[in-house]
Each structure stands twice: as structure tokens, then as C-alpha cells.
Q: What sequence folds into this?
């Protein structure tokens, strides 16, 4: 991971922007998946 | 004698133009009702700070009341955090719990943030400023202010004005983008409401879980997400009705009042009247357009695999402009077919956009310094 970040650091600004997009969207998606699963598996009283 | 007329002799065309901008913002707030709670104080603050000698901000080395407010509330990031406590107390996540799939639109509709960062980089802005501009796409004023305070203090005024103005202009920005990307048939898709009895334990635990998860994944987002979730916990716990009411009313009103006029104080002619401001305003619009497109296209993508189709307009509500965006989507749905009711799904996407935008802001705050080394 450190190597990837180092190569992005040395790369172009647009490369940094694309990396930010990939990581940013990826992280937000991962966190929402966690929340989604928590809501889905939360025990509910039977109707 | 000259000192008697120093007010008149100190007027420049730039300060006069900015006073005009202030009056325009007040006009938009009063006449058009575009985010009046923010645009009116911002407009008046703009007038105050551009009056001759700018005594309200700083004069002969002595800070004026607006500078004191700026240093205490914006430079310390206190106002955005307090506003988030109020927003949290106003947020009802139940529509999202009933339709958890809506959470993913809160991700897709953050696309505009990152697309705009790349556009700003291509236009020659450095990564920090580009990120602060991109966050306009969070469609979330406090997050924009928070990130701009860290990364682009000089552009705080235009970034805040762009964020709040475009949030107010969602009814004008989103419909043409949605129409361009969807067919009439898609806009008429009906969705069934999932009426489930939600356990109170989930509603109360959710803000605590979100805070802990956000703190682990993106610690930089904790001031924002933590205050948002604190406000929501106060609302949902069921034993703090007085505090919940205070957060939704007194706290929200007082901080909004001070936040607006203080943001206005950053709109001096020297900082605002330059081509960069116009570029920031333009890119803010681009961010909202890409946000909307991201949400709609993601909904269409999901429909490729789903038996129970999603009305793709709901995806556009994944931006955080709550509850304006959800209302716009329902209005469009009703215009296509009066029997199409997607307001609950749109509100679910809208509140998940609130979460998504704060998370995106926190991740940008964390990643940009790492990328800059």
C-alpha cells in the first residue's frame, strides 16, 4: 500500500485526483455496506 | 475635514460591487426564498465587511465583532460542528432503515465531489483547494465550510456561497439532468413502500454504531459525523426531549444566525472579486450535476440486476440536500404520473446522502495530506 501511495505522490495531479476518487468512493461504499448489513441483520420482532 | 468624509472617500468600485453582491443575496433570500436562513445573513455580512474601513472585521489592528466571531466559530471549526448537532437532531433515519438499499445512493451521489476535484486539478488548482471546491458537491454547507477552513481558507466565502446557493437551486439543477438520463417509462416506475416495525434498539444504537465505525474507518470525519450522530442520539433516545427540541430550535437558529453573518465577513472584495471565484461557482454547479448523474446512473445500473425495479429518479436524492432533493423527486414523479409515490424512498436516499457526504468529507480530509506527503 505504501508503494502505491508513494507512486501516486510522485505522479501527476490528475493521478492524485483519480486515486482520491477511487479511495474516497471505495471507502464511503464500504462504510455504507457495513451500515446496510447492520440494518439488515438487526433482530426484529416477529409480526 | 477629509476625515469627516472618510466613509465616502474610501469607497472603491470593488467594495461597491460587493455591496451589490450582498444585496443580491438578500434579494434571493427574501424574494425567491433561496435558503433564506443562510443567504440573508451571508448577504448582510457581505455588506458589513465591504463598507468603508471594514470596521466590523478589523480596524487599526483591533478585531471587530465579525473577526471575533470568525476566529471563534469558523477558524476553530466550532460552528459547523454545532450545526451538525442540530442537523442530527432533525434527521429521521427511519425511511432509510425501511429501505436500506437506498443507502447506496448516498454513495453514488458523492461522485460529483471527486469528479469536480479532478476538473479543478485540470484547471490548475492545487490538490487542497481542488478538494475544498469538490466538497461543494457534498451538497452540505457545514461539511463544505469544515473542509474549506482546513484546505482553502482564502476561498471560504465563495465555497460556502456556492454550496448554499446550489442547495437552494436543487429544484432547478436536478430536473433537467434527471430528464436527460431517464426515459418517461423509467420515471413512472412505481415502488412499494416497506412498512416494517423498526426496533427501537436499532434506532437508538444506530448513531452510536455509525460514530464508532466512522471513527475506525475515517477518524478525520469524527468531528462531523460524531456531532451529527450525537444530535441524532439525543433525538432518538426518547429521554431527552427538551435537549432534542433545544438542538432543533434554539441551537440551530442561533448558530445559523452567527454562521451566516460570519461567512459573509469572509466575502471582502479582495478575496471575492477575482476570476477564481467565478471558476469556483462554476465548478460547484458541475459538482451538483455530476452528483445527480451519479445517483441516477447507479439506480439504472442496479435495475439491471433487480426484479423489483427502482425508480432511477430516487438515485438523484442521494445528494445530501435534505429534504429539498426528495421533494423535487416526488414532484417530478407526480408530474409524470399522479399515482407514483416515491417520497419515502427518496427521503431514505436523502438521509443516507447526509451520511455519505460527511464520510466523503472525512476521507478527503484524511487522504489529501497523505497524498501531499
A:
Amino acid at each position: 500500500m505504501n508503494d502505491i501511495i508513494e507512486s501516486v505522490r510522485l505522479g501527476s495531479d490528475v493521478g492524485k485526483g483519480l486515486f482520491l476518487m477511487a479511495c474516497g468512493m471505495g471507502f464511503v461504499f464500504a462504510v455504507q455496506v457495513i451500515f446496510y448489513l447492520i440494518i439488515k441483520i438487526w433482530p426484529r420482532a416477529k409480526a | 475635514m477629509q476625515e469627516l468624509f472618510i466613509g465616502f472617500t474610501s469607497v472603491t468600485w470593488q467594495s461597491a460591487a460587493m455591496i451589490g453582491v450582498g444585496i443580491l443575496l438578500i434579494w434571493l433570500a427574501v424574494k425567491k426564498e433561496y435558503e433564506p436562513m443562510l443567504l440573508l445573513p451571508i448577504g448582510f455580512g457581505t455588506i458589513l465587511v465591504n463598507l468603508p474601513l471594514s470596521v466590523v472585521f478589523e480596524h487599526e489592528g483591533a478585531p471587530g465583532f465579525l473577526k471575533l466571531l470568525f476566529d471563534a466559530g469558523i477558524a476553530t471549526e466550532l460552528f459547523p460542528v454545532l450545526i451538525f448537532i442540530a442537523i442530527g437532531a432533525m434527521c429521521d433515519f427511519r425511511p432509510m432503515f425501511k429501505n436500506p438499499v437506498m443507502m447506496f445512493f448516498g454513495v453514488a451521489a458523492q461522485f460529483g465531489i471527486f469528479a469536480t476535484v479532478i476538473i479543478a486539478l485540470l484547471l490548475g488548482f492545487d490538490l487542497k483547494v481542488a478538494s475544498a471546491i469538490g466538497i461543494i458537491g457534498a451538497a452540505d454547507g457545514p461539511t463544505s465550510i469544515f473542509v474549506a477552513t482546513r484546505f482553502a481558507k482564502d476561498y471560504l466565502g465563495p465555497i460556502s456561497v456556492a454550496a448554499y446557493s446550489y442547495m437552494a437551486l436543487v429544484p432547478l439543477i436536478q430536473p433537467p439532468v434527471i430528464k436527460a438520463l431517464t426515459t418517461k417509462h423509467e420515471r413512472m416506475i412505481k415502488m412499494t413502500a416497506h412498512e416494517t416495525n423498526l426496533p427501537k434498539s436499532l434506532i437508538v444504537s444506530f448513531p452510536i454504531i455509525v460514530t464508532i465505525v466512522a471513527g475506525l474507518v475515517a477518524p478525520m470525519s469524527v468531528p462531523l459525523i460524531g456531532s451529527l450522530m450525537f444530535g441524532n442520539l439525543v433525538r432518538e433516545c426518547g429521554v431527552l426531549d427538551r435537549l432534542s427540541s433545544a438542538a432543533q430550535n434554539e441551537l440551530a437558529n442561533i448558530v445559523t444566525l452567527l454562521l451566516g453573518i460570519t461567512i459573509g465577513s469572509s466575502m471582502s472584495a479582495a478575496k471575492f472579486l477575482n476570476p477564481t471565484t467565478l471558476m469556483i461557482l462554476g465548478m460547484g454547479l458541475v459538482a451538483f450535476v455530476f452528483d445527480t448523474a451519479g445517483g441516477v446512473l447507479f439506480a439504472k445500473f442496479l435495475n439491471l440486476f433487480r426484479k423489483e425495479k427502482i425508480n432511477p429518479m430516487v438515485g438523484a436524492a442521494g445528494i445530501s440536500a435534505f429534504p429539498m432533493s426528495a421533494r423535487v423527486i416526488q414532484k417530478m414523479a407526480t408530474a409524470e404520473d399522479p399515482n407514483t409515490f416515491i417520497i419515502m424512498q427518496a427521503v431514505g436516499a436523502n438521509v443516507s446522502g447526509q451520511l455519505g457526504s460527511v464520510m466523503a468529507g472525512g476521507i478527503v480530509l484524511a487522504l489529501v495530506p497523505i497524498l501531499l506527503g
Q: What stands out?
A: Strands of chain B lie at 58-59, 62-63.
